[in-house]
Design brief:
Helix content is 49%, strand content 15%. With 324 residues, the protein is of the alpha/beta class. It has two domains: 220 residues, Spore Coat Polysaccharide Biosynthesis Protein SpsA, Chain A (Alpha-Beta Complex); 70 residues. Bound molecules: uridine-5'-diphosphate (UDP) and magnesium ion.
Length: 324
Protein backbone atom coordinates (compact mmCIF):
# COMPACT_ATOMS: atom_id res chain seq x y z
CA UNK A 1 0.00 0.00 0.00
CA UNK A 2 1.24 3.46 -0.86
CA UNK A 3 2.36 5.44 2.15
CA UNK A 4 0.92 8.68 3.37
CA UNK A 5 3.39 11.51 3.02
CA UNK A 6 3.29 14.80 4.84
CA UNK A 7 5.50 17.58 3.53
CA UNK A 8 6.27 20.12 6.26
CA UNK A 9 7.24 23.64 5.25
CA UNK A 10 7.97 26.45 7.71
CA UNK A 11 7.10 29.84 6.24
CA UNK A 12 8.09 33.21 7.58
CA UNK A 13 7.10 36.21 5.46
CA UNK A 14 7.03 34.11 2.32
CA UNK A 15 4.17 35.77 0.42
CA UNK A 16 6.44 36.25 -2.57
CA UNK A 17 7.30 32.59 -3.01
CA UNK A 18 4.24 30.74 -1.72
CA UNK A 19 2.16 30.97 -4.93
CA UNK A 20 4.97 29.41 -6.97
CA UNK A 21 5.95 26.93 -4.28
CA UNK A 22 2.38 25.69 -3.90
CA UNK A 23 1.98 25.33 -7.67
CA UNK A 24 5.10 23.21 -7.93
CA UNK A 25 4.09 21.19 -4.87
CA UNK A 26 0.74 20.35 -6.41
CA UNK A 27 2.48 19.08 -9.56
CA UNK A 28 5.07 17.17 -7.58
CA UNK A 29 2.58 15.52 -5.25
CA UNK A 30 0.34 14.61 -8.18
CA UNK A 31 3.17 12.93 -10.03
CA UNK A 32 4.21 11.03 -6.89
CA UNK A 33 0.62 9.89 -6.43
CA UNK A 34 0.37 8.83 -10.06
CA UNK A 35 3.51 6.78 -9.70
CA UNK A 36 1.95 5.11 -6.69
CA UNK A 37 4.81 6.23 -4.42
CA UNK A 38 2.51 8.06 -2.00
CA UNK A 39 -1.13 7.68 -1.10
CA UNK A 40 -3.87 9.95 -2.36
CA UNK A 41 -4.47 11.38 1.10
CA UNK A 42 -0.90 12.73 1.37
CA UNK A 43 -0.70 16.33 2.49
CA UNK A 44 1.42 19.45 2.55
CA UNK A 45 1.54 21.19 5.92
CA UNK A 46 2.39 24.87 5.68
CA UNK A 47 3.51 26.30 9.00
CA UNK A 48 3.14 30.03 9.40
CA UNK A 49 5.84 31.14 11.83
CA UNK A 50 4.10 34.35 12.91
CA UNK A 51 4.58 36.10 9.58
CA UNK A 52 3.91 39.79 9.33
CA UNK A 53 2.89 39.76 5.68
CA UNK A 54 0.06 37.98 3.88
CA UNK A 55 1.52 34.48 4.33
CA UNK A 56 -1.31 33.21 6.54
CA UNK A 57 -3.99 34.56 4.22
CA UNK A 58 -2.33 32.75 1.35
CA UNK A 59 -2.17 29.53 3.37
CA UNK A 60 -5.84 29.83 4.34
CA UNK A 61 -6.74 30.35 0.70
CA UNK A 62 -4.67 27.38 -0.44
CA UNK A 63 -6.34 25.22 2.18
CA UNK A 64 -9.76 26.30 0.94
CA UNK A 65 -9.00 25.76 -2.72
CA UNK A 66 -7.01 22.57 -2.60
CA UNK A 67 -7.41 19.54 -0.41
CA UNK A 68 -3.66 18.96 -0.54
CA UNK A 69 -2.87 21.82 1.82
CA UNK A 70 -3.15 22.03 5.57
CA UNK A 71 -2.13 25.09 7.56
CA UNK A 72 -0.63 25.53 10.98
CA UNK A 73 -0.42 28.98 12.50
CA UNK A 74 1.96 29.60 15.38
CA UNK A 75 0.93 32.22 17.90
CA UNK A 76 4.05 34.26 17.13
CA UNK A 77 7.42 34.08 15.39
CA UNK A 78 9.50 31.35 17.04
CA UNK A 79 12.22 30.85 14.46
CA UNK A 80 12.84 28.27 11.77
CA UNK A 81 13.71 25.31 14.01
CA UNK A 82 10.73 25.70 16.33
CA UNK A 83 8.37 26.21 13.41
CA UNK A 84 9.72 23.10 11.76
CA UNK A 85 9.35 21.12 14.98
CA UNK A 86 5.77 22.34 15.35
CA UNK A 87 5.07 21.06 11.84
CA UNK A 88 6.79 17.74 12.40
CA UNK A 89 5.01 17.16 15.70
CA UNK A 90 1.72 17.86 13.95
CA UNK A 91 2.62 15.42 11.18
CA UNK A 92 3.56 12.82 13.78
CA UNK A 93 0.91 10.12 13.96
CA UNK A 94 -0.88 11.55 10.93
CA UNK A 95 1.42 10.15 8.26
CA UNK A 96 3.81 7.31 7.46
CA UNK A 97 6.62 9.59 6.36
CA UNK A 98 7.36 13.30 6.60
CA UNK A 99 9.63 15.42 4.44
CA UNK A 100 10.71 18.83 5.66
CA UNK A 101 11.81 21.53 3.23
CA UNK A 102 12.13 25.29 2.93
CA UNK A 103 9.48 27.45 1.35
CA UNK A 104 11.85 29.25 -0.99
CA UNK A 105 12.31 26.43 -3.55
CA UNK A 106 16.01 26.11 -2.79
CA UNK A 107 15.53 22.42 -2.14
CA UNK A 108 15.08 20.48 -5.36
CA UNK A 109 11.68 18.77 -5.14
CA UNK A 110 12.69 16.05 -7.56
CA UNK A 111 14.94 14.61 -4.86
CA UNK A 112 11.77 13.52 -3.06
CA UNK A 113 11.46 10.49 -5.33
CA UNK A 114 14.86 9.28 -4.20
CA UNK A 115 14.01 10.08 -0.57
CA UNK A 116 10.97 7.83 -0.82
CA UNK A 117 12.92 5.07 -2.55
CA UNK A 118 15.43 5.07 0.29
CA UNK A 119 12.54 4.80 2.71
CA UNK A 120 11.29 1.78 0.77
CA UNK A 121 14.72 0.27 1.23
CA UNK A 122 14.28 0.55 4.98
CA UNK A 123 15.70 3.94 5.94
CA UNK A 124 13.86 5.76 8.70
CA UNK A 125 15.74 9.00 8.07
CA UNK A 126 17.07 10.31 4.75
CA UNK A 127 19.27 13.40 4.67
CA UNK A 128 19.20 15.76 1.71
CA UNK A 129 22.74 16.91 1.03
CA UNK A 130 23.56 19.67 -1.42
CA UNK A 131 26.36 18.68 -3.71
CA UNK A 132 27.46 22.18 -4.56
CA UNK A 133 26.96 25.57 -3.08
CA UNK A 134 27.55 27.96 -5.96
CA UNK A 135 24.11 29.43 -5.37
CA UNK A 136 25.32 30.75 -2.00
CA UNK A 137 27.54 33.79 -1.61
CA UNK A 138 31.25 33.15 -1.07
CA UNK A 139 30.89 34.31 2.52
CA UNK A 140 27.96 32.01 3.35
CA UNK A 141 29.69 29.07 1.69
CA UNK A 142 32.98 29.52 3.53
CA UNK A 143 31.44 30.18 6.94
CA UNK A 144 29.15 27.18 6.54
CA UNK A 145 32.07 24.97 5.59
CA UNK A 146 34.06 26.20 8.57
CA UNK A 147 31.07 25.54 10.80
CA UNK A 148 30.66 21.92 9.68
CA UNK A 149 34.39 21.29 10.12
CA UNK A 150 34.35 22.87 13.55
CA UNK A 151 31.36 20.75 14.60
CA UNK A 152 33.12 17.59 13.41
CA UNK A 153 36.23 18.65 15.32
CA UNK A 154 34.15 18.99 18.47
CA UNK A 155 32.92 15.47 17.96
CA UNK A 156 29.38 16.30 16.92
CA UNK A 157 27.73 13.80 14.60
CA UNK A 158 26.47 16.04 11.83
CA UNK A 159 25.91 15.40 8.14
CA UNK A 160 28.08 17.60 5.97
CA UNK A 161 26.13 20.16 3.93
CA UNK A 162 22.79 18.92 5.16
CA UNK A 163 20.32 21.62 6.08
CA UNK A 164 16.77 20.69 6.97
CA UNK A 165 15.67 18.97 3.77
CA UNK A 166 15.04 15.57 5.29
CA UNK A 167 12.75 12.59 5.26
CA UNK A 168 11.72 11.25 8.65
CA UNK A 169 9.44 8.27 9.08
CA UNK A 170 6.76 8.29 11.69
CA UNK A 171 8.99 6.12 13.91
CA UNK A 172 11.75 8.71 13.62
CA UNK A 173 9.25 11.43 14.51
CA UNK A 174 8.24 9.46 17.60
CA UNK A 175 11.91 9.36 18.56
CA UNK A 176 12.31 13.07 17.89
CA UNK A 177 9.36 13.75 20.18
CA UNK A 178 11.38 12.24 23.04
CA UNK A 179 13.92 15.03 22.80
CA UNK A 180 12.53 17.75 24.99
CA UNK A 181 15.27 20.34 24.68
CA UNK A 182 14.38 23.97 24.20
CA UNK A 183 17.58 24.87 22.34
CA UNK A 184 16.70 23.21 19.09
CA UNK A 185 19.16 22.10 16.47
CA UNK A 186 17.19 19.56 14.50
CA UNK A 187 19.88 18.52 12.07
CA UNK A 188 21.97 17.42 15.05
CA UNK A 189 19.09 15.64 16.79
CA UNK A 190 18.18 13.44 13.84
CA UNK A 191 21.49 11.52 13.94
CA UNK A 192 21.09 11.15 17.71
CA UNK A 193 17.77 9.45 17.13
CA UNK A 194 19.71 6.77 15.28
CA UNK A 195 17.94 4.30 12.96
CA UNK A 196 19.01 3.23 9.51
CA UNK A 197 19.64 6.32 7.46
CA UNK A 198 21.10 7.40 4.16
CA UNK A 199 21.98 10.46 2.15
CA UNK A 200 20.54 11.81 -1.09
CA UNK A 201 22.43 14.56 -2.90
CA UNK A 202 20.73 17.33 -4.82
CA UNK A 203 21.53 20.66 -6.42
CA UNK A 204 20.56 23.56 -4.26
CA UNK A 205 19.27 26.45 -6.29
CA UNK A 206 18.92 30.09 -5.46
CA UNK A 207 16.07 31.43 -3.40
CA UNK A 208 13.14 31.84 -5.79
CA UNK A 209 12.08 35.26 -4.51
CA UNK A 210 12.26 37.41 -1.40
CA UNK A 211 15.16 37.70 0.99
CA UNK A 212 16.91 35.20 3.21
CA UNK A 213 15.27 35.06 6.63
CA UNK A 214 18.65 34.17 8.09
CA UNK A 215 20.70 37.34 8.43
CA UNK A 216 24.25 37.02 9.72
CA UNK A 217 23.17 37.62 13.31
CA UNK A 218 20.66 34.76 13.25
CA UNK A 219 23.16 32.53 11.48
CA UNK A 220 25.76 33.13 14.18
CA UNK A 221 23.25 32.51 16.97
CA UNK A 222 22.20 29.31 15.22
CA UNK A 223 25.80 28.13 14.92
CA UNK A 224 26.54 28.85 18.60
CA UNK A 225 23.33 27.04 19.55
CA UNK A 226 24.39 24.07 17.50
CA UNK A 227 27.81 23.89 19.09
CA UNK A 228 26.79 24.41 22.69
CA UNK A 229 23.77 22.10 22.47
CA UNK A 230 25.83 19.21 21.24
CA UNK A 231 29.30 19.54 22.64
CA UNK A 232 30.91 20.37 25.97
CA UNK A 233 34.33 20.42 24.40
CA UNK A 234 34.59 24.23 24.53
CA UNK A 235 34.41 23.91 28.32
CA UNK A 236 37.21 21.34 28.28
CA UNK A 237 39.19 23.59 26.00
CA UNK A 238 39.04 26.28 28.67
CA UNK A 239 40.37 23.85 31.23
CA UNK A 240 43.16 23.00 28.79
CA UNK A 241 44.05 26.64 28.26
CA UNK A 242 43.96 27.15 32.03
CA UNK A 243 46.44 24.34 32.60
CA UNK A 244 48.69 25.67 29.86
CA UNK A 245 48.71 29.14 31.35
CA UNK A 246 49.44 27.70 34.78
CA UNK A 247 52.49 25.92 33.41
CA UNK A 248 53.68 29.04 31.61
CA UNK A 249 53.19 31.06 34.80
CA UNK A 250 55.48 28.66 36.70
CA UNK A 251 58.25 29.46 34.22
CA UNK A 252 57.46 33.14 34.54
CA UNK A 253 57.78 32.85 38.31
CA UNK A 254 61.13 31.15 37.93
CA UNK A 255 62.27 33.88 35.55
CA UNK A 256 61.09 36.57 37.95
CA UNK A 257 62.95 34.96 40.84
CA UNK A 258 66.16 34.72 38.86
CA UNK A 259 65.78 38.33 37.71
CA UNK A 260 65.21 39.40 41.33
CA UNK A 261 68.23 37.49 42.56
CA UNK A 262 70.44 39.02 39.91
CA UNK A 263 69.15 42.50 40.76
CA UNK A 264 67.49 43.33 37.43
CA UNK A 265 63.98 43.95 38.71
CA UNK A 266 62.89 47.31 37.32
CA UNK A 267 62.70 46.36 33.67
CA UNK A 268 59.84 44.17 32.49
CA UNK A 269 57.09 46.67 31.93
CA UNK A 270 56.29 45.16 28.51
CA UNK A 271 55.96 41.60 29.75
CA UNK A 272 53.87 42.82 32.68
CA UNK A 273 51.45 44.74 30.47
CA UNK A 274 51.35 41.93 27.94
CA UNK A 275 50.48 39.25 30.42
CA UNK A 276 47.80 41.34 32.12
CA UNK A 277 46.01 41.89 28.82
CA UNK A 278 46.49 38.35 27.67
CA UNK A 279 45.29 36.68 30.84
CA UNK A 280 42.46 39.19 31.24
CA UNK A 281 41.32 38.49 27.71
CA UNK A 282 41.44 34.73 28.12
CA UNK A 283 39.54 34.97 31.40
CA UNK A 284 36.78 37.07 29.90
CA UNK A 285 36.50 34.79 26.91
CA UNK A 286 36.31 31.76 29.18
CA UNK A 287 33.66 33.38 31.32
CA UNK A 288 31.71 34.07 28.15
CA UNK A 289 31.89 30.46 27.04
CA UNK A 290 30.84 29.21 30.46
CA UNK A 291 28.09 31.83 30.51
CA UNK A 292 26.83 30.47 27.20
CA UNK A 293 26.30 27.07 28.81
CA UNK A 294 24.81 28.50 31.98
CA UNK A 295 22.38 30.43 29.82
CA UNK A 296 21.44 27.22 28.05
CA UNK A 297 20.82 25.50 31.38
CA UNK A 298 18.68 28.41 32.48
CA UNK A 299 16.51 28.14 29.40
CA UNK A 300 16.26 24.37 29.61
CA UNK A 301 15.20 24.33 33.26
CA UNK A 302 12.37 26.75 32.64
CA UNK A 303 10.92 24.26 30.19
CA UNK A 304 8.92 26.82 28.33
CA UNK A 305 6.85 25.56 25.41
CA UNK A 306 8.84 25.52 22.19
CA UNK A 307 5.87 26.64 20.17
CA UNK A 308 2.25 27.51 20.73
CA UNK A 309 -0.25 26.74 18.01
CA UNK A 310 -2.89 29.31 17.23
CA UNK A 311 -4.83 27.48 14.49
CA UNK A 312 -4.66 24.18 12.68
CA UNK A 313 -6.45 24.09 9.34
CA UNK A 314 -7.25 20.54 8.29
CA UNK A 315 -10.15 18.62 6.81
CA UNK A 316 -10.49 15.86 9.37
CA UNK A 317 -11.29 18.23 12.22
CA UNK A 318 -8.13 17.49 14.24
CA UNK A 319 -7.13 19.70 17.13
CA UNK A 320 -3.71 21.36 17.18
CA UNK A 321 -0.85 19.41 18.76
CA UNK A 322 -0.40 19.67 22.46
CA UNK A 323 2.88 17.77 22.68
CA UNK A 324 5.36 20.55 22.27
N1 LIG B 1 11.86 30.56 8.51
C1 LIG B 1 10.93 30.46 9.55
N2 LIG B 1 11.06 31.28 10.64
C2 LIG B 1 12.08 32.19 10.76
C3 LIG B 1 13.04 32.26 9.71
C4 LIG B 1 12.90 31.43 8.61
O1 LIG B 1 10.00 29.64 9.49
O2 LIG B 1 12.12 32.90 11.76
C5 LIG B 1 11.71 29.68 7.32
C6 LIG B 1 11.70 30.39 5.99
O3 LIG B 1 10.40 30.81 5.65
C7 LIG B 1 12.20 29.32 5.05
C8 LIG B 1 13.17 28.52 5.91
O4 LIG B 1 12.83 28.84 7.26
O5 LIG B 1 11.18 28.46 4.60
C9 LIG B 1 14.61 28.83 5.63
O6 LIG B 1 14.84 30.22 5.66
P1 LIG B 1 15.70 30.96 4.54
O7 LIG B 1 15.44 30.38 3.20
O8 LIG B 1 15.43 32.42 4.67
O9 LIG B 1 17.18 30.63 5.02
P2 LIG B 1 18.48 30.44 4.08
O10 LIG B 1 18.08 29.48 2.99
O11 LIG B 1 18.81 31.78 3.56
O12 LIG B 1 19.50 29.88 5.00
MG1 LIG C 1 16.58 29.62 1.78
Amino acid sequence: MAKKLMVVIPCYNEEEVLPETSKRLIDKMRSLMDKGMISADSRVLLVDDGSKDRTWELITQLHKEHELFEGLKLSRNRGHQNALLAGLMTARGRCDVSISMDADLQDDMDAMDRFLEKHDEGCEIVYGVRNKRDSDTWFKRETALFFYRFMKMLGVDITFNHADYRLMSNRALDALAEFKEVNLFLRGLAPLAGFQSDVVTYDRSERFAGESKYPLKKMLAFAIDGITSFSVKPLRLITGVGILIFIVSLFMLLYALIAWLSGKTVAGWTSMLGSIWLIGGIQLLSLGVIGEYVGKLYNETKHRPRFIVDRYLNRQGDDPVVDR
